[in-house]
Structure formats: C-alpha cells, structure tokens
Amino acid sequence: MLVLNEADTRAALSWAPLIAAIDTMFAADCVTPVRHHHTVEVPGEAAATMLLMPAWVPGAYMGVKILNLFPDNQRRALPTIIGTYLLSSGTTGEMLAMVDGGELTARRTAATSALAARYLAHEDAQSMLMVGAGRLALNLMQAHATVRPLERFAVWARDPDKAEACAAAARALGLDATATADLAAAAGDADIISCATLSNTALIQGEWLRPGTHLDLVGAFKPDMRESDDACIRRASVFVDTRAGALKEGGDIVQPLRSGVLDEDRILAELADLVGGHHGGRSRPDEITLFKSVGAALEDLAGAILAYEQTSRETVA
C-alpha cells in the first residue's frame, strides 16, 4: 500500500491537474453518500468535529476520509484539521493508498473554489482579498491565481500578526501580497473575496461589494457559523458546491433560508450544473456572484486518485 505524508501529498497535487481532476469528477458517475458529521466534546475547550466522508466510482476506485477538526489546536501549535484518506480499488476492494487527510483537504478545498471561480469570477479579475490567515489561505490564493490573472492580494485576519505572516509567506511564493487592517476598504477593492474562517458572525457586509465581485465562502461549515451577511445574499447570484451539503450545513445558506431572506429557488446552480454546462455561470459583468462551499466527498476522491496515480507513475519511472 502506498503511504503519502503531507509533503508527498502536496507534491502530487499541483493546482492545474487537481482542478482538472475535480472538474472531471463532478461530471463523472461518482456515488457520494451523505457524510457522517459528529460533534465531539473536548472538556474545557471548543467542541471538535469528526467527519467520515465516503465516495466511489463503480468499478474504478472507492475511498473514505476520516477527518478531525479541533478548533483549539492552534493553542498547541497543531493543525486545526487532522485526518487520513483511505483509497481502495473499486474492483477488488484492495487498499491502495493512505493519503494525508489534512493536506488533501486543504488543497482540494482551494481547487474546488478555483474551479467555481472559473465559471463565476470575472475573466480579467486582478485583485483578491483573502479573509483568514489559516492553513487554507495560501492554498486559496495560489489556486485562484491558477484560473484568473490575479496581480494583487490583500490578507485580513482578526490577528494582524497572522495576516502579516500570511502575506509574507505569499510573497515568498511569488504573489504580490500585503496585509490589511481595513476589511471594508479591502473588500470594496477586490474582484475576488475568499473567506476561510471559523467565524460565528458575518464578516463581509453586502454594502461593501462593488458590482462584479465574486464572493467565495469556504469557512462557516456549520449551520450556526457565518461569514457573510444578509445583504450579500440579497445582492448576489447564489451558487453552491452541492445543494445537499449547503442546504444542511453551510450557515451562510442555512440561516438566510430559515429567516426567509433566501428561497431555495434563488440558488441558481450547484457546481455539477456549471461543470456539466447546465448553467452558464456569470451572466453579466456587473453581476455579484456568491459561491458557498461546504466540501464534497467526490472532491477528496478525485484528489486521492490523482495523488495515487501521479506518485505511482513517478515511482515506476
């Protein structure tokens, strides 16, 4: 069985091939049962979350991700997301690979947002605001830069030191990035806004968004969490990665639905509709688009297959 650690997984999942693999998987005959989502109490700390996410392509591959999310791990200088992906043959059930789940999750999440941006963001988008400075931030900036000609990046975080550190790390990767303390001004200046936080209250205000903005919401993965306010929902054309996931788990969708701010028929499409050509995505230059991602097991399967096949080819060579 192939075992891929964090560095191996990162090396095997370059952005363009990963985005293409996820695109293909959304159009494929992939079976994705409802994931198991469990709250795990941690005495004296914020509750943790355990996710079990299976998926398979009949006759090809099958796999499951076991993912633990511990919000207070930052106090211990440990990753918030820790997990493992188990990839098996869809023909024999033979275990083929064990892939680092944290790195797989971080990269497939960013790649999925970039795939959505290919349909929803301006073709000539040049500026991006990254809200949040955690593990996903650098991945999201790099992935979006793969599909759009981004030239400038701003990074905002509740902790200014973390925003500065993230911007410095982005510059080391060749991105023109600076930290900002003025979230409203940065949001009003951005062609793409990507949020990857654990916020329980709205950070982005709809009144800040200029015409043509694309809002990418990656965090707030529980119904009681939120990164955008009602004005964002009212002003935007709304898209999701999967209806089943977003309608159940994503607070930026669940809360407006409950309050009546959003009707289900205003969710124009899920990612499979965009990939399959059933919806054209952005329809005009001044349209504000909003994409809510909660993650789908088929994205993990696509990444795990790519990592396994890529590493196997290199090993043989």
Automatic annotation (TrEMBL):
Entry superkingdom: Bacteria
EC number(s) reported in the record: 4.3.1.12
SUPFAM superfamilies named among the record's database cross-references: NAD(P)-binding Rossmann-fold domains
A GO CC term attached to the entry: cytoplasm
Keyword line: Lyase, NAD
UniProt cross-references to InterPro entries, sorted A to Z: NAD(P)-bd_dom_sf, ODC_Mu_crystall, ODC_N
Family: Belongs to the ornithine cyclodeaminase/mu-crystallin family.
Protein name as it appears in the record: Ornithine cyclodeaminase
Provenance organism: Pseudorhizobium pelagicum
